[in-house]
Amino acid sequence: MTELAFSAWVQDVQADVERALETFLPEAAAIPHKLNEAMRYTALGGGKRVRPLLAYASGDLFGADRRALARVASAVEMIHVYSLVHDDMPCMDDDDLRRGKPTVHVAYDEATALLVGDALQAQAFQVLAEADTLPPARLVGMLRLLAEAAGTKGMCGGQAIDLDSVGLSLTREELERMHQLKTGAMLRVSVILGAMAGRDLEPRELEALATYSKAIGLAFQVVDDVLDATADSATLGKTAGKDAADNKPTYVSILGLEPSRALAEQLRREAHEALAPFGEQAQRLRELADLIVQRKA
Amino acid sequence: MTELAFSAWVQDVQADVERALETFLPEAAAIPHKLNEAMRYTALGGGKRVRPLLAYASGDLFGADRRALARVASAVEMIHVYSLVHDDMPCMDDDDLRRGKPTVHVAYDEATALLVGDALQAQAFQVLAEADTLPPARLVGMLRLLAEAAGTKGMCGGQAIDLDSVGLSLTREELERMHQLKTGAMLRVSVILGAMAGRDLEPRELEALATYSKAIGLAFQVVDDVLDATADSATLGKTAGKDAADNKPTYVSILGLEPSRALAEQLRREAHEALAPFGEQAQRLRELADLIVQRKA
User: Fold this and answer.
1) CATH number for the domain that contains residue B251
2) Boundaries of domain holding B97
3) Which residues in chain A (114-153) have CB-CB distances under 8 A to chain B?
4) pTM here?
5) Interatomic CA distance for residues B55 and A19, integer angstroms
6) How confident is the model at residue B183 (pLDDT cuts 50, 70, 90)?
7) Do residues B12 and B56 lie in contact, with contact meaning Cβ atoms separated by under 8 Å?
8) Band of pLDDT at residue A29, cut at 50, 70 and 90
9) pLDDT at A249
10) How many domains does chain B have?
């Protein structure tokens, strides 16, 4: 497959996800107007949709139909977006720019931002629970994995460790564990749920996907840290240089810039290797690993 | 059944729910310590456990086993507790006392309070999704109802309307709609999920439980407004007189004190009438309606 075909696939999936979110988010005309409008403001029309892309790539590999994938992708993206909205609030990172737009607490107010995040999380579970083309027993398992990835053993737990790490000098292992929870858990579950939208997974398939996910999850964060240290806010669509300013430990602060870039490249190769058992069919997942490492924003 | 038997049953269920929450909340010794400890701080050892009591009463009526009920009760209570934690934050009600203890953002900090709420919501869905004694198809339906009751068409939606109503003079109908979402949706789903933990419901059973739930949901709020206007903070375990101070519309401000008390009594009778088809077996649900209306805190 050519790079052009990959770009076209990315755009196709992004458009599919945008349509799905349009459908699965509450209508702006419905009560409560402001909350629903703010949910749509933050979830629609932006973002790289990395988690949905992973779910679709993995789902295509396991023969998932697009109706189920649209629900999986919307659910993981809603969890992701809610986490950004809460993370940007003054009591957390206090950021006023996200995806090139004012953050929710700036465009609306803090109380609305709090509720937007809360309601998006509930909506994520609802959208997935309504995936009635999937066998109920498998769907229950998927809901369980989503909840675990979002909670204290996953994303929220990683956020908590992140908060507690401000001003501390973490070891590379501690930093890695934090990111495996904070961003890794949701990237991993996006890959797994996409595959499960196709069929039940054999243990060795689950293991291969988990190895792939772990590599791209870390790579994603290493690249984030490199970009935060080297790119400008306009390119990133969010405030650059925040980590250093906030005195947060990063791969760049622990390893240095060039070793961080080398690590990202090594993780990209590990991701490719994990996909070997799936052969040519896993090309989209390989290309996504490349995209994650080579992105400029 | 005597009043004594009812008190004993309430205490028995409260103890059962406390044990279940102890089990289903993350261990304080697990990483991230502070987040897990704060989740336990706010969820354990307090509260009237009204939603769990409703789930157990309804579950007993429909032959649910206690293992499944413990999960249903823990899930609805976790959603309720998360909503209190977020509701108490400075950007919402800015309250520093809850269930007689400092609120989470006071005992810890705002960022932790935000994450405690987020993680409790995820944990609620996980605890229910792991109810593996229930048939998967019914369990999926239960998860869907829980998500709907928690989100923009339920509790979060009611919170949003509440926020937008500060300083406005609502009609009684508008006030009722707000409360049917804000507290009614979660009370209703507690009754329904408790019953579904026993078996699938027939439409007329669902309707009777919905009518009962609507009446007690409104009664609960009317009594809350009466208590806020008449009781002291020590009795309530939270700051009394907040609604008037915050210029929030209440039943007392719209109807007056005595008509509000009369309305609560009327709703109690409506709740009893809705239970007529279930006969003597629904005694616990009747007694809970009485408890909700006659409580002093």
Assistant:
1) 1.10.600.10
2) 3-294
3) 114-115, 117-119, 121-123, 125-126, 129-130, 135-137, 139-140, 143-144, 146-148, 150-153
4) 0.95
5) 38
6) very high
7) no
8) very high
9) 83
10) 1
